[in-house]
Amino acid sequence: MHRKPLIIVGDSAFAEIAFEYFTHDSEMQPVAFAVEASYRTRSELFGLPVVDLETITDRFPAAEHHFFVAVVYGRMNRLRTRLYHEMKAKGYSPASYISSKAFVWRNVNLGEHCFIFENNVVQPFVTIGNNVVLWSGNHIGHHSTIEDNCFVSSHVCVAGFCRIGDSSFLGVNAALGNNLTLGRDVWLSPGVSVTKDVPAGTVIKMSRPEVSPVSSLKMFGVEETES
């Protein structure tokens, strides 16, 4: 199989993870990492060069390379989105990764420059926009839409006929009921359950867990002398 050369933008933990998945579970072959010059602190990662993003075309011609921006949700996904558009403007082709261990139904409408980790379930008639990350273990229910530039962290459950607005973030174990709409730039903290529409720019936080004044040992009648 002829493998397509890939530039990974970034050199953080997500970039390391992207390198693993693209190398061992895709038709892409990473050949370099690219970082903006003011943030670059090393010249090599996994035996590949780490180069300045501003001058990347000097060494890796755009016509011959794909790219993926392995950046998470900083600044409400704005950083990943900016770098994605900058690489496209340079002439590079966006790459996507869909894990061989993900379930993505045949009629899902999937945009470009997406990363779908293992154990995601994406049901029929779902639409996923451009520049979307689905971390591991999510459920995206039938007829739902995730708009561009969103980040869905692990074990999120989105029921059917939902719409997630552009650049939103869904924290670990968040859950959405049927027929809900989240506006643009919504932030859901881990563990939140949403049962009604959420306006754009809203932050929803889960109540802080209370610490009981009774210790776990006392609650269960365990003597402190017991091992």
Oligomer state equals: single chain
Q: Taking strands numbered 1, 2, ... along the chain, how are they ordered across the largest sheet? A: 7-10-13-16-19-22-24
User: Could you say which overall geometry the principal axes of the C-alpha atoms support?
Assistant: globular
CATH topology of the largest domain: UDP N-Acetylglucosamine Acyltransferase, domain 1
Name of the CATH superfamily of the largest domain: Hexapeptide repeat proteins
Would you count the extended β strands for me?
Answer: 24
Largest sheet: 7 strands, parallel
Question: CATH top level of the largest domain?
Answer: Mainly Beta
Q: What's the domain count?
A: 2
Uncertain segments: none
Helix content: 10-25%
The name of the CATH architecture of the largest domain is: 3 Solenoid
Note the run of SSEs as H and E. Answer: EHEEEHEHEEEEEEEEEEEEEEEEEEEH
Supply Rg. 20 Å
Q: Strand share of the residues?
A: 25-35%
Distance between the termini: 58 Å
SSE-based structural type: alpha/beta
Helix count, DSSP H or I runs of 4 or more residues: 4
Q: Tell me, rounded to a whole number, the average pLDDT.
A: 96
